[in-house]
Amino acid sequence: MHSTAVLIPTYNEAATISQLIFELSLLNVDIFVVDDASPDGTAQIVRNLELSHVHVIDHGRKAGIGPAYVFAMQKAIKGGYDKIATMDADGSHLVDDLAVMLDLGPKIDVVMGSRWIPGGLVTNWSNGRKSLSKFGTWYARKCLGLPYKDLTGGLRIYGKNALESINLDHISSNGYCFQIEMIKSLHAHGAIIKEVPIHFIERQGGVSKMSKAIVLEAFSRVSLWGVQRMLRINADKLHYVK
Q1: Taking the mean position of all CA atoms in its chain, how far away is CA 51?
Q2: Which of 75, 95, 81 is nearest to 4 (CA)?
Q3: How far, CA to CA in Å, does 48 sit from each of 17, 43, 51, 54, 218?
Q4: What phi and psi, each to the nearest 5 degrees, are found at residue 11?
Q5: Distance CA 138, CA 26 (A)
Q6: Of the ranges 47-51, 60-64, 101-105, which one carries the lowest mean pLDDT score?
Q7: CB atoms within 10 A of CB 9
Q8: Is 236's pLDDT higher than 80?
Q9: What is the pLDDT of residue 232?
Q10: What is the pLDDT of residue 205?
Q11: pLDDT (average), residues 36-56
């Protein structure tokens, strides 16, 4: 067992999952593929690799990225991992970036891979998609009073102690809003959070999970949280307290 667990939620990622696992295997990490009953056989492909440091978590029916991550985080915490990383299965996150993030010191509670700070880079996105992502983070920053430049990115490393400081059962968002809610809750509890630049590449296989429903969820929830914040300044900390 290594001290770091890498959590990878999957739904129909048969085209890319093996390559990602082989690249991650160069690091000193344990890998957990959290599969939502992918009909393309993603989970079985992972099992067929027969690697002792790679595990499949069958999460059941497709429930989305938020519940998959929460479920896997709770298992990783119980498993005693010191660091719990999250990344996409489609090749959009680079293992080299994760390696750099893992080398940061233990005093940092959360390391966020950021596309929108100096040194960050996005490849194969249209200008419209870039604008949507930047607007989403800008809007969330203004509503929630957060200082971070990229609130919707999925390449992150969470310290075990930071995750244990919040009640993960109260994290209820799905899609990209999950990423916002995690940072919102950890920031409210005083976590030390650092952004580092990454190179994000639009998925190299499979089908994008982006949808209008995901965008609407993020906009509506962030707007509601913003109103709650104005009415009750300490609402975030009280909601996520254990």
Answers
A1: 24
A2: 81
A3: 12, 9, 8, 11, 37
A4: -150, 110
A5: 36
A6: 60-64
A7: 28
A8: no
A9: 75
A10: 55
A11: 95
The H or E element that residue 119 is part of is none
- d(CA 50, CA 66) in angstroms, rounded, equals 27
End-to-end CA distance of the chain, in Å? 28
For residue 181, the surrounding DSSP H or E stretch is: helix 177-188
Look over the chain and give the mean of its residue pLDDT values, rounded to a whole number.
91
CA distances for 76 relative to 34, 79, 105, angstroms: 12, 5, 20
Q: How many whole angstroms separate alpha carbon 214 and alpha carbon 228? A: 21
3 state DSSP class of 142 = helix
Q: How confident is the model over 128-184, as pLDDT tens digits?
A: 989 989 999 999 999 999 999 999 999 999 999 999 999 999 999 988 899 999 999
Query: Distance between CA atoms of 163 and 142, rounded to whole angstroms?
Result: 24
pTM of the model: 0.91
Interatomic CA distance for residues 200 and 155, integer angstroms: 9
Domains and CATH numbers, the chain: 4-240 (3.90.550.10)
Residue 235 pLDDT: 59
Question: Cα–Cα distances in Å, from 180 out to 112, 220, 223?
Answer: 11, 12, 12
For tokens 């800008």, the residue is 138
| CA–CA–CA angle 89, 82, 12 (5° rounding) | 15
Joined tokens for residue 138: 């800008």
Instruction: Give pLDDT, residue 165.
Output: 95
